[in-house]
Design brief:
Layout: H1 24-37, E1 41-43, E2 45-47, E3 50-52, E4 57-62, E5 65-74, H2 78-97, H3 100-115, H4 119-130, H5 134-161, E6 172-180, E7 184-188, H6 194-206, E8 210-214, H7 220-232, E9 240-242, H8 247-255, E10 260-266, H9 269-281, E11 291-295, E12 300-304, H10 310-322, E13 332-338, H11 339-354, H12 374-388, E14 393-397, E15 401-402, E16 408-409, E17 412-416, H13 422-425, E18 432-438, H14 443-453, E19 456-457, E20 459-463, H15 467-476, E21 483-486, E22 503-504, H16 515-518, E23 522-530
Parallel strand pairs: 1-5, 7-8, 7-10, 8-9, 10-11, 12-13, 12-20, 13-18, 17-18, 20-21
Antiparallel strand pairs: 2-3, 4-5, 6-23, 14-17, 15-16, 19-22
The structure holds nicotinamide-adenine-dinucleotide.
Nicotinamide-adenine-dinucleotide is lined by residues 188-193, 196, 214, 216-217, 247-248, 250-251, 266-268, 271, 274-275, 295-298, 329, 427, 429, 458, 500, 502, 506-507.
């Protein structure tokens, strides 16, 4: 498969720029934000390299300024969705037979473009479209995306090269061919990370697959600009086909197609379960059994031991729960704090959170922007309002919201007497942290509670000092999180350092940005060649 290729050294993570006052990156991203905010982009479908303006248009707005339209998006209908599938199937032979190094070079070039000349463009679009601060856009649309591309190419090269050659007895030559899947991959992406938008179609493509990419209705602009960058990096027509579309229509058409080879999904648990059901309903109609990879929701926890570093716990609660408005799948949204520690940190915690500024992301003094849309705002508001009406709940911080200009929710901390109150159990996906205070002598029982409270198992953090407590908690919570943190917040995983994904209701745990994920997009062919085939059917045991 790979000829004369030397594996390069492992790539290093893209350095995160600081955006300090006076820095060139700050000036660049703000200038780009200003430029982009003055235009309304017509976003087409991109099928077989052609831009298709269907005329069935929806508007995309800034979540923090919802009267400000940033894009008019031309939705794909049945005709375009089917055309996108056809285009990906037509491109399959060309793409899968292209020299591996040529394929890889496209994605390495894309990473270089984003690291350099296109960095401000994709970051500014992510700020506008998904209401990320400059810092949050930088760690997502620039750094994580660059890391996904560079590391996936590195891991892919390893998969091709590291095939353990099978044993070949005398007269026989055995080999294993690493093939892409037969058919197309349906990549369905969430709003909250531009990097995931990029990763889900490109990871299968790096392994020689072609894809239909259905972006989220809340990140059309940033995802479209990324698609254009892929083309500028040299991606041939038809390899990735970009179809903004009504989700259920795209889902029904793609997932009932005979040539569906795989689903690469990130989003909520309910949507993923429905998609899996659809695949199940169609299972007899497919040419192959589709690979199903899905990273889904979370109800991520922090639990502190009474002897833990209280200051570190306090900071983890703030950063882990509220950055990007709590809209990271990894965001902590339930915390279990021992009574003595709570008494110590409560006032200081509330005072610190009250310093957090919420507002327009182009004002870099804001720590939080808006939540993504009206539907999400109303959902979060519902949790806050129900907690306000519940005698067993009280607000330590926040509890207020305002949608007059943008969908703003103040960082909210709910103290819950009942550890099974809805906000301790369900994914809210907003800046809402629920806290349960437990008696100091109930550390072990509380670990049990953490494990059993929610259906999810994405991320979680324990804070403790004594190694025996750390070891005990690690064992007790073995299946409670796919990404487990000791004395650190449960967000901020880095490609190549902490491969990301959860189990239980949180996904198939195929670890985005790792070799494990890439192996889902290949299907091996074992080949035996016999140099001396037998010319006689009888065996020696016969008389
Ligand atoms: P979502 O489930 O609403 O949407 C995700 C994608 O699925 C979108 O593109 C949407 O249009 C599409 N979709 C919806 N119904 C569909 C259908 N019937 N057929 C085909 N596609 C369909 O999620 P979201 O609001 O965009 O993102 C937030 C969710 O994603 C949260 O639950 C969060 O925890 C999760 N998430 C998980 C991870 C992870 O790695 N585990 C990472 C990011 C986000």
């Amino acid at each position: 498969m790979v000829n004369n290729v030397v594996t390069p050294p492992k790539p290093s993570n893209e350095p995160i720029l600081g955006y300090a006052p006076g820095s060139p990156e700050r000036a660049a991203v703000l200038a780009e934000y200003e430029r982009q905010s003055k235009i309304v982009v017509e976003v087409p479908c991109i099928i077989n390299g052609e831009e298709i303006f269907t005329g069935n248009v929806v508007e995309q707005v800034m979540p923090h300024d919802h009267k400000h339209v940033i894009a008019r998006v031309h939705l794909a209908g049945e005709k375009e969705i089917k055309a996108a599938i056809d285009a990906s199937l037509d491109a399959h032979e060309m793409w899968s037979s292209m020299a591996w190094d040529s394929r890889a070079a496209i994605f390495l070039k894309l990473a270089e473009m984003i690291a350099g000349p296109r960095r401000a463009e994709i970051n500014a679009a992510t700020m506008m479209n998904q209401s990320k601060t400059a810092h949050q856009a930088e760690i997502d649309a620039a750094c994580e995306l660059i890391d996904f591309l560079n590391f996936n190419v590195y891991y892919a090269r390893g998969i091709y090269e590291d095939q353990q050659p099978p044993i070949s007895p005398k007269g026989v030559w055995n080999t294993v061919e690493v093939r892409p899947l037969e058919g197309f991959v349906f990549a369905v992406t969430p709003f909250n990370f531009t990097a995931i938008g990029g990763n889900l179609p490109t990871a299968p493509a790096i392994m020689g697959n072609t894809a239909v990419w259905k972006p989220s209705r809340n990140s059309y602009l940033s995802n479209y600009l990324l698609m254009k960058m892929m083309e500028d990096a040299g991606l041939p027509p038809g390899v990735i086909n970009f179809i903004p579309a009504k989700a259920s229509q795209a889902g029904d058409i793609c997932m009932s197609h005979k040539m569906l080879a795989g689903v690469h999904f990130t989003g909520s648990t309910g949507v993923f379960r429905n998609m899996w059901k659809t695949v199940g309903d169609n299972i007899a109609n497919y040419l192959n059994y589709p690979r199903i990879v899905g990273e889904t929701g979370g109800k991520d926890f922090i639990i502190a031991h009474p002897e833990a570093d209280a200051q570190a716990v306090k900071i983890a609660m703030i950063r882990g729960s509220f950055e990007y408005q709590g809209q990271k799948c990894s965001a902590s949204s339930r915390a279990y704090i021992p009574q003595s520690m709570w008494d110590e940190i409560k006032d200081d915690y509330a005072a610190e959170v009250s310093k957090i500024k919420v507002g327009d992301v182009k004002d870099l003094s804001n720590f939080l922007g808006a939540v993504i849309d009206k539907k999400s705002f109303d959902n979060i508001k519902g949790y806050i309002d129900r907690a306000a009406a519940e005698p067993g709940c009280s607000f330590v911080t926040g509890g207020t919201y305002d949608e007059s200009v943008g969908y703003f929710v103040q960082p909210t901390t709910i103290l819950c007497e009942d550890p099974n109150w809805e906000s301790m159990v369900e994914e809210i996906f907003g800046p809402v942290l629920s806290v349960y205070v437990f008696p100091d002598n109930e550390w072990k029982q509380t670990l049990e509670l953490v494990d059993k409270t929610s259906e999810y198992a994405l991320t979680g953090a324990i804070f403790a000092r004594d190694r025996r407590d750390i070891e005990y908690a690690s064992k007790k919570l073995k299946y409670a999180a796919g990404n487990f943190y000791i004395n650190d917040k449960p967000t901020g995983s880095i490609v190549g350092q902490q491969p990301f994904g959860g189990a239980r209701g949180s996904g198939t745990n195929d670890k985005a940005g790792s070799a494990a994920n890439l192996t889902r997009w290949i299907s091996a062919r074992s080949i035996k060649e016999n140099f001396t085939p037998p010319h006689d059917w009888t065996y020696s045991f016969l008389d």
